[in-house]
Specification:
Helix 1 runs parallel beside helix 7 (about 165-170). The protein has helices at about 10-50, 55, 65-95, 95-115, 120-125, 125-155, 165-170, 175-190, 195-200, 205, 210-220, 225-235, 240-250, 250-260, 260-280, 285-315, 315-340, 345-370, 380-395, 395-410, 410-430, 445-450. The longest helix is centred in the N-terminal third of the chain and has 42 residues, at about 10-50. It has one domain (about 30-220, about 240-450): Growth Hormone, Chain: A, CATH 1.20.1250. By secondary structure, it is mostly helical. The chain is globular.
């Protein structure tokens, strides 16, 4: 006698939904904490570059030149991020998302802790900045693999109608990490003299990274591989050389995706690194005041990024991102007018408005990029495109802003730079396709689209 399976009862369906929500909360938490640690480490370096590294590692140089060299060291990680994206993308597409997330997190934490141990240039001479550069490159390699994997852990697990929301939660790691980095520096700076800060105090936030890394590792050990990659593995459909396959079939998406994301890196780096340097060096604000402004703007982003991510689920990724990029361009000149006004209140307003524009741009961009690629090369494609944007935007922004100010003496020159980056991103976005309604479990989106035609 054959027994017909019973249909799930209403209670069972509710229990299943609760289980799914619980799993997504756990996955989202693991991704957010991991990216928070990574961005804490990354932007801790940016804050230190603006405030102390010129004195610690380039003490015999002119202050402006020392700051420029410190920012160039800051930028070096972005070149390494491309290499990291290819390396971790290869193994992420071959072996899975979870293992690469653990390796990248441990690598980043070890490099950041080691930075806190480097003797200064007056102690070991020219070896000090070279060691700093080496560890910065290791940070870049790790971040090149971290971000893409964290995005895929959430997006590939998420329901189709909430991918924008869950993808934006990973992006929240940026303002949280930046906020914690600035709080750490603010506490250290407020608790000691400037001489002690430069002599040894700056090391404390770097070494404290070990605590955050430990928490991130513990949580990530308790998550499972994504359904999309599991399907590719079970079908035996993995690409033998993911990067080669990517560049043969998705090179346009990689290039345009990198350019489309260019303005996010330029704008955010302007706010958290270049803006701090400009506010302290050129406008005469205290480092504590500028750090407080950055912290306030990060709180704004903490709430705004998920809001715009959810909007992208309703109205489409491109529409929301285009609005954010356009707002960045429109606000570029008013941002500096408010900074140059001499009013502390206007500095807060300028940062809040620009951070809102950035959030509209940044919230949906992770999911938008992930949806451009098929599962078999999604880790590689997402990571390389995003890290390319970092190289084109974030990496050079601090050095360019210092150079422009030295050459022109006018903050408007930086505003023109931000407008230019925004225009390039707008053009690339208009060319790219919004795949919000596509099935991202497809092994290869290009083959899938050919069949559908």
């Amino acid at each position: 006698m054959t027994t017909t399976p019973l249909a799930p009862t209403g209670t069972e369906e509710v229990a299943s939904a609760r289980l799914d929500r619980t799993k997504m909360r756990r996955i989202s938490l693991a991704s957010v904490i991991g990216t928070t640690v990574e961005w804490y480490d990354l932007f801790l370096f940016g804050t230190a570059s603006a405030l102390v590294f010129n004195k610690v590692f380039f003490p015999d140089l002119d202050a402006a030149l020392g700051t420029l060299l410190a920012f160039l060291t800051f930028a070096s990680a972005y070149a390494a991020r491309i290499v990291g994206a290819v390396f971790f993308g290869h193994f992420g597409d071959r072996l899975g998302r979870k293992s690469m997330l653990l390796i990248s997190l441990i690598t980043m934490g070890a490099a950041t802790f080691a930075i806190g141990l480097i003797p200064d240039a007056r102690t070991i001479g020219i070896a000090a900045p070279f060691i700093l550069l080496t560890l910065r490159l290791i940070q870049g390699l790790a971040l090149g693999g971290e971000w893409g994997g964290a995005v895929l852990m959430t997006v590939e697990h998420a329901p189709k109608n909430r991918r924008g929301w869950y993808g934006s939660l990973v992006q929240v790691g940026v303002p949280i990490g930046t906020l914690i980095a600035n709080i750490a520096f603010l506490i250290v700076a407020a608790s000691m003299s400037n001489e002690d800060l430069i002599a040894w105090g700056w090391r404390i936030p770097f070494m404290a990274s070990a605590l955050l890394v430990g928490v991130g590792i513990y949580i990530r050990l308790h998550i499972e591989e994504t359904p999309s990659f599991t399907q590719v593995r079970e079908q035996g459909a993995k690409a033998k050389l993911p990067f080669t396959y990517l560049m043969q079939n998705y090179w346009k998406q990689v290039l345009l995706g990198g350019i489309a994301t260019l303005s996010t890196g330029s704008t955010f780096t302007l706010l958290v690194a270049s803006g701090v340097s400009y506010g302290t060096t050129d406008l005469g604000h205290s480092s504590g005041f500028m750090l407080s402004v950055v912290m306030f703007s990060c709180v704004v982003a903490f709430f705004a990024i998920p809001f715009f991510g959810r909007l992208s689920d309703r109205f489409g990724r491109k529409k929301v991102i285009l609005g954010g990029v356009a707002a960045e361009a429109v606000l570029a000149f008013p941002f500096f007018w408010m900074l140059d006004s001499g009013s502390n209140v206007m500095v807060f307003v300028a940062y809040a408005l620009m951070m809102l524009a950035f959030s509209a741009n940044y919230g949906p961009i992770a999911t938008f990029l992930a949806e451009l690629f098929g599962t078999k090369v999604r880790y590689s494609g997402l990571s390389v495109a995003y890290m390319l944007s970092g190289l084109l935007g974030s990496a050079i922004t601090p050095a360019i802003t210092v150079a422009l100010l030295n050459a022109t003496g006018q903050s408007s020159s930086i505003a023109f730079y931000i407008v230019g980056a925004s225009v390039l991103s707008l053009i690339a976005l208009l060319i790219l396709t919004d795949n919000r309604n596509r099935d991202i479990d497809s092994v290869d989106l290009l083959q899938d689209s050919k069949v559908s035609r």
